[in-house]
Amino acid sequence: MGGIRWHCFPDAPAVAREAVQRILEAARQAIEQRGEFHLVLAGGSTPRLVYRQLAETSADYSHWHFYLGDERCLEPDDGDRNSFMIRNDWLDHSAIPEEHIHWISAELGPEEAAHLYESLVRSVLPFDLVMLGMGEDGHTASLFPGHRHDQSRLVVPVYQSPKPPLERVSLNFSTLSQTRELLVLVTGEGKRSAVQAWRDNGDLPVAMLRCDAGIDVLLDDKAAGEQS
Ligand code: 6PG
């Protein structure tokens, strides 16, 4: 099992630039070797910077497939959906085959949506690249501290989320880890104590991620604090 590689950058836009470069390079390699690129996207403010930069980058997306690490149980056109944000900030500005966008049907509710997405994900694994954010409490995707999930499920329903809305759907730990590359983007001072706890092998959801290829954590100086 690979370890964690910590990469520090001066600020959030620099973290996003690095993520963009890594995504484009992973896509190039995946398409060259296997003809397709399967990319898992995240919600949150740090990944959002990546989408905005990608919207200004010209790339051939004809062999890319897009998935979500988690989704909020809201109507499809709700501005707080991760899918809405990603479309708005990136996909709607780029030529992307509609049938390559594989969103979670979270409007159906956590249980049904998790069940449906599980069959899709099972047919795709392993992903080529999974990009995640991390919350101030150390959550990643919609896997929150203190929540227990059936580890045999690839996709889990989430209730009583501490971050709105209450109901969500999330890929499970082992599913997020079945990828050729795993990136976690962490920016801002509010993340500093969770970063510290992660480095100290603390009991955080994000610290439960394991990946054969290792995990690349891209963080800015504010999140890294004195460790940078
Ligand atoms: C969500 C996300 C979540 C997010 C982290 C970090 O649905 O909100 O998928 O896991 O990535 O909370 O978000 P920030 O980058 O905004 O701190």
How does this model look, in words?
- The chain has 228 residues and is an alpha/beta fold.
- The chain contains 7 helices and 10 strands.
- It is 32% helix and 20% strand.
- A 7-stranded parallel sheet has the order 1-10-9-6-2-3-5. A 3-stranded antiparallel sheet has the order 4-8-7.
- Helix 1 packs across helix 2.
- The radius of gyration is 16 Å and the shape is globular.
- The relative contact order is 0.20.
- The model has no long low-confidence stretch (mean pLDDT 96).
- 6-phosphogluconic acid binds next to helix 2 and strand 4.
Summarize the structure.
The chain has about 230 residues and is an alpha/beta fold.
Which small-molecule ligands are present, each listed once?
A: 6-phosphogluconic acid
Portion of residues in beta strands equals 15-25%
Order of helices and strands: EHEHEEHEHEEEHEHEH
CATH architecture: 3-Layer(aba) Sandwich
Key structural traits:
228 residues, alpha/beta, Rossmann fold, seven-stranded parallel β-sheet, three-stranded antiparallel β-sheet, 7 helices, binds 6-phosphogluconic acid
Describe the SSE topology:
Elements lengths: L3 E6 L2 H23 L2 E5 L3 H11 L8 E5 L1 E3 L9 H8 L11 E2 L7 H13 L6 E5 L21 E4 L9 E4 L1 H5 L4 E5 L5 H8 L15 E6 H4 L4
Helix pairs in contact: 1-2
Bound molecules: 6-phosphogluconic acid.
